[in-house]
Write a structure and sequence with these properties.
heterodimer; A: about 425 residues; mainly beta; Ubiquitin-like (UB roll); Methylamine Dehydrogenase, Chain H; 3 helices; B: about 725 residues; alpha+beta; five-stranded antiparallel sheet; four-stranded antiparallel sheet; 33 strands; about 25% helix; elongated; rRNA processing (chain A); NLE (chain A); WD40_PAC1 (chain A); WDR12/Ytm1 (chain A)
């Protein structure tokens, strides 16, 4: 009888010795003693278990969802299946690391625009920028709190970028537009205004023959580069002094009132090599620019010589590109198919991507690495979803479905929020995402 | 070997002491002994010569005796010769007769045959006569007596002892003569003359046809050259295989007597015997009185009932005490007869089985994976039109796309995002839109009813806009002059509402097609049978020309050659190819279709496809023939448009059953290699509206993407 009982007990549930560890700070720490838990427990069970442990220590603890890592991989099935799939012995004490679930805890009210929101930039912690199809750029202090309106483009904005995000009083901003120009703006973010202030560009950068698709800023902020439909990448100076002889000052008269002068700048270098529309550029280091193009290639350019250093061919049209991750060297790109591909250029023979994430159902319109985590990145797609990814699992960590139409742009903001703009003219801010 | 030899020699050395006489077989030695013995036994001391005769070996030692004998004989001869020759001969005859008769007379002749006489040495008889009686040995004479007898007898030297018959024979004179002659190596008979004179039996002198006395020709003694040549010929022919030898007839090997006859099918055209199919031979089960173990028990029979119908055994063995009690016995004879009738009368046909794998008959096509990229899935939809989208056109760079709809609007879309950039209300249903192929001239040609509108899309920078505006400016006075001078086929008017030009035709324009240089464009008016239905317009000079050819049939579409000054007009039944510079008809391509609907030219210029209203698509290789190279049945209903990709080896058709069909169409620069056509993908997704499906499809100029315009108000972009 005893034997039978033991056997049946074995068949029903096997138990595994586990120890919970975490890198989280004080309120989320559990005692590191090993405990036995049933093997068929999944993520939800583990999470409630940890919450129960925490509550037993601290009765005031608010329940919190957790994610669990075993040997650097997220648990997305029952513990038993996971161990079986990974070939981990269930005999020894299993160390399970837990983190807070990377998902937005809060959805701000969407800020409505007049037209499609085509570009967002959240590189400054004090504000974020949006570009819109009505030709206006906007500066927002937070969701629904617009402080400045950047006025002057005659066609839809395609890309916005903050040049010196931590500038003290005035912040310089670059915008790219389909009217074949880029404009540079200076805004004073400290001013308190009741209604949005209209700002004019201090410098207009002309030279592209077709619509400008993307703008990226050098790390020092002295230069910007832009990618365009005319297959070129132009490099521009951002300084605003009037020293160069090719600068033309213009007086504008609007309503009989003379406004301040606007400078016109010309590109000082053009990088030629792409055969089709260059859709995205990033400038992660001082000396190199990465560009993605519709000719299916990602190229790395040397800024000093203007030479093309490396090519990665992907086979699909590329729309977005970002550099980040481990050592700021992984290349993430998405394009005309629902797959985010991540290349590691440090590996020899980098033609094959090291990671591929394919949970979207339509074109990828944006992908951004988290600036502090090596593992996290977000992606936006025409299927109306923004997804948060971790390199340690093939499934998205969370899916933000606040948009009702194509998501055209998305970015991290303040390293715990995601801002995204879409074809439903909405700007959505999802905040309180506990990355790290 | 050497060692062996050595041993051999050693042996020889050792064996030297043994006399070699011992080697012969004992029987021979016996015989010799016997002969020696005979010699001894018959040793009449005097008659050495006799012994010499017997041995037959002339000895030097006995030569003197011989001579004496000879002398005697010669004396005899002389005596004879003295007498009459005839006497001589008669004497001889007599002697011979005597001897013969004597031989005959001698009654007891030994019949023991050729056996060693030694066997009878100790017997009282020497053998048997012909009647089987023993022949007694004669009593041997005492040696002295015989000697005395011999001395007395003068003819003693003629006597020979015949040991076989145990008698003494006296040789006659003639016989002695014969012997002597033989000893002298002369012919035995003295009357034979070996050196007689030759006698000419024929008279040579007067004969008309003399018998040739010519010496034998030399050729009869030497090998024939002709024969040698013939042999060489034959040998060569055999080596070359010209002469074949009949193979030795194979004997019938063992064959399977009870084997299946059907295996040995003769390949004959005549009616051949077809054996009846063999039935399975009955086993123990089928016996009328099977052993008990074959009979299923009641339980087993019950279990059969529970089994699935097909698994149930067909025959259940049963036991009967005798053949008569079998139920079938009553009808056995009849059944047998009918079976025989069946076998006899049933017409049997030998089934000719073609062992061809149907898969092997399919042409070998490369797999679709190797032919990537090609459009597969729809990712972007362009929504906005309020009625069926009839026509689309993609700008040369691939950034924008224009569409015309039955709701009377023309829209320009951003390809990347699906955003509608501009919209024109043209009032009437749009038949066709066509973007100028030059990348810096953003002019859209739109056919609306009887008009063709040239619209400025306001894309491009200031300089480009200036050029476009110049192009689209027309002096109304000159236009009216033009129309006044000639038969007013088309009038160029200014359209202020849309900031463009309006070309007024007399009939409904269904198709507009630009020349590759962006200056000329052609319009087609299918309804115009009386007048020229195809017109070519020049944008820079605002001129309209008629096609200087007579068309046979109703024009449907027209298109320009992608690189040369060649113009294609597609009529309902055929495609006509004109050279515009030389103004002559180059070719007429016979489609064999009921009603063609669309035409597309390969960017290489030598291949074109024609889509038809019956759902067929014809691929023409103009270098090959004027008949279609391939006819592809794409859809059960109308094909609305066919299109080639400009850079990828792709072509597509769209039809009213809401599918677009994408093909791989590789044209090789090698003229010997025919184009490779591989069907790739059905693109579905549109819904039918008023019985119409996809009305137009266009490839993206630089990506392997396909735009489809549906009657369901949508435009879809299929990406790779």
């Amino acid at each position: 009888m005893n034997m039978n009982e033991e056997e049946s007990g074995d068949g029903r549930e096997r138990s595994i010795q586990v120890r919970f560890v975490t890198k989280l700070s004080a309120p989320f720490k559990v005692p590191t003693t090993a405990i036995a838990i049933p093997a068929d427990i999944a993520r939800l069970g583990l999470s409630s278990l940890v919450n129960a442990l925490l509550q037993s220590n601290d009765p005031d603890f608010q329940p919190e969802p957790f994610d669990f890592l075993i040997d650097g991989e997220y648990v997305r099935m029952s513990l038993e299946e996971f161990l079986l799939a990974k070939g981990i012995s269930a005999e020894r004490i299993l160390e399970i690391e837990y983190t807070r679930v990377v998902a937005p805890r809060k959805e701000e009210d969407p800020s409505l625009h007049d037209d499609w929101v085509s570009a967002v930039d959240g590189s400054s912690s004090r504000f974020f920028l949006t570009g819109c199809y009505d030709g206006l750029g906007r500066v927002w202090k937070g969701a629904g709190l617009c402080t400045h309106i950047l006025e002057g483009h005659s066609d839809a904005l395609t890309s916005v970028s903050v040049i010196n995000p931590e500038g003290l009083e005035t912040v310089t901003v670059a915008t790219a537009s389909k009217d074949r120009t880029l404009r540079l703006w200076k805004i004073n973010t400290e001013e308190h205004v009741n209604h949005p202030m209209r700002v004019r560009a201090y410098k207009i950068l002309c030279g592209h023959k077709s619509s400008v698709q993307s703008v990226a800023v050098q790390t020092s902020g002295e230069m910007v580069c832009s990618a365009s439909w005319d297959c070129t990448i132009n490099l521009w100076q951002t300084n605003d002094f009037n020293g160069e002889d090719d600068l033309v000052s213009k007086k504008r008269k609007i309503g009989g009132q003379v406004e301040e002068s606007q400078l016109e700048g010309e590109a000082f270098t053009t990088l030629v090599g792409h055969t089709q529309c260059v859709s995205s550029v990033v400038w992660p280091q001082r000396e190199s620019i990465y560009s993605a193009s519709w000719d299916h290639s990602i190229r790395k350019w040397d800024v000093e010589t203007g030479k093309n250093l490396t090519d990665i061919f992907c086979g699909k049209v590329l729309n977005c590109l970002d550099i980040g991750g481990e050592g700021s060297s992984l290349i993430a790109a998405g394009g005309s198919d629902p797959v985010i591909r991540i290349w590691d250029p440090r590996k020899p023979g980098t033609s094959a991507p090291v990671f591929q994430f394919a949970s979207h159902t339509s074109w990828i319109s944006a992908c951004k690495w988290h600036d502090q985590s090596w593992f996290h990145l977000l992606s936006a797609s025409y299927d109306g979803k923004v997804m948060l990814w971790d390199l340690r699992t093939a499934w998205p960590l969370s899916v933000i479905e606040s948009h009702t139409d194509k998501v055209l742009s998305a970015d991290w903001w303040k390293s715990d929020s995601v801002i995204s703009g879409g074809a439903d003219s909405k700007l959505c801010v999802s905040s309180e995402i506990p990355v790290r | 070997m050497k060692e062996k030899k050595k041993t051999m020699t050693k042996n020889d050395d050792e064996e030297v002491p043994f006399p070699p006489e011992n080697l012969p077989s004992p029987s021979v030695s016996d015989y010799e002994d016997s002969s020696a013995h005979d010699g001894e036994s018959s040793d009449s001391l005097d008659s050495q010569s006799e012994s010499e005769f017997e041995d037959g070996s002339p000895d030097n030692g006995s030569s003197g005796d011989l001579e004496s004998a000879e002398n005697e004989s010669s004396q005899d001869e002389d005596i004879v010769n003295d007498g009459d020759g005839g006497n001589e001969s008669s004497d001889i005859h007599q002697d011979g007769a005597e001897s013969d008769s004597s031989e005959d007379e001698v009654a007891p002749r030994n019949t023991i045959g050729d056996v060693p006489l030694k066997w009878y040495e100790d017997e009282p008889h020497i053998g048997y006569d012909i009647k089987g009686k023993k022949i007694k040995k004669k009593e041997k004479q005492d040696k002295l007596d015989s000697f005395l007898a011999n001395v007395d007898d003068s003819k003693n030297w003629r006597k020979i002892y015949d040991e076989y018959n145990d008698e003494e024979i006296q040789l006659t004179k003639d016989e002695v003569k014969l012997v002597r002659r033989l000893l002298k190596n002369r012919a035995p008979h003295s009357d034979f003359d070996p050196y007689q004179d030759s006698v000419d039996w024929f008279k040579w002198e007067d004969a008309k046809h003399p018998l040739s006395n010519a010496p034998e020709p030399k050729r009869r003694f030497i090998p024939s050259k002709w024969e040698a040549r013939k042999v060489v010929q034959y040998v060569r022919a055999i080596r070359k295989g010209l002469i074949t030898f009949d193979k030795p007839k194979e004997e019938d090997g063992p064959y399977h007597l009870w084997g299946d006859d059907s295996g040995s099918t003769e390949k004959a055209n005549h009616l051949s015997y077809i054996p009846a199919p063999k039935q399975k031979l009955p086993g123990h089960d089928e016996s009328y009185n099977p052993p008990l173990e074959y009979i299923p028990t009641q339980e087993e029979i019950n279990s059969y009932q529970l089994m699935f119908e097909e698994d149930r055994p067909k025959f259940i063995p049963k036991r009967f005490t005798s053949m008569r009690s079998i139920p079938a016995y009553e009808n056995a004879m009849k059944d047998c007869f009918e079976r025989c009738l069946d076998l006899y009368l049933c017409p049997r046909v030998r089934k000719k089985r073609l062992n061809i794998d149907p898969e092997s008959l399919k042409p070998k096509l490369p797999s679709r994976k190797e032919l990537k990229p090609y459009p597969i899935t729809c990712y972007i939809e362009y929504k906005g039109h309020e009625d069926a989208v009839t026509s689309i056109s993609v700008e040369a760079s691939g950034q924008w796309m224009a569409s015309g709809s039955s709701d009377g609007t023309v829209r320009v879309w951003e390809v990347e995002t699906g955003r509608c950039l501009r919209q024109w209300e043209v009032g009437e249903a749009v038949n066709c839109v066509a973007w100028n192929p030059l990348p810096d001239i953003h002019i859209l040609a739109v056919s609306v009813g009887q008009d063709v509108l040239l619209l400025n899309t306001c894309l491009g920078d200031e300089e480009e806009q200036k050029r476009i505006k110049e192009l689209l400016w027309v002096d109304s006075s000159t236009a009216s002059d033009d129309s006044g001078n000639k038969a007013p086929t088309v009038s160029w008017l200014k359209d202020d509402k849309h900031m463009g030009l309006r070309l007024r035709h007399f009939k409904t324009v269904t198709a507009v097609e630009w020349h590759r240089k962006g200056d000329y464009f052609s319009t087609v008016m299918p309804a115009d049978i009386l007048f020229e239905s195809v017109l070519i317009h020049q944008l820079s000079k605002k001129l309209t020309q008629k096609l200087p050819f007579k068309l046979h049939g109703l024009a449907v579409r027209s298109t320009f050659h992608p690189s040369r000054s060649i113009f294609f007009v597609c009529t309902k039944k055929s495609v006509r190819v004109y050279d515009l510079l030389k103004t002559k008809l180059i070719k007429k391509l016979d489609t064999g279709l009921r009603e063609a609907s669309s035409i597309a030219v390969h960017p290489g210029g030598d291949n074109l496809i024609v889509g038809s209203k019956e759902g067929k698509m014809c691929w023409f290789d103009m270098e090959l023939s004027s008949k279609p190279y391939k006819i592809i049945k794409c859809s059960p209903v109308d094909i609305n448009n066919v299109i080639f990709h400009r850079s990828y080896p792709l072509f597509a058709s769209c039809s009213d059953n809401c599918t677009a069909y994408v093909f791989h169409g590789m044209v090789y620069s090698d003229l010997n290699q025919n184009p490779l056509i591989v069907p790739l993908e059905f693109l579905r997704g549109h819904t039918s509206s008023n019985g119409r499906g996809i009305l137009d499809c266009k490839f993206h100029p630089r990506q392997p993407w396909l735009f489809t315009a549906g009657a369901d108000k949508l435009i879809k972009l299929y990406c790779h």
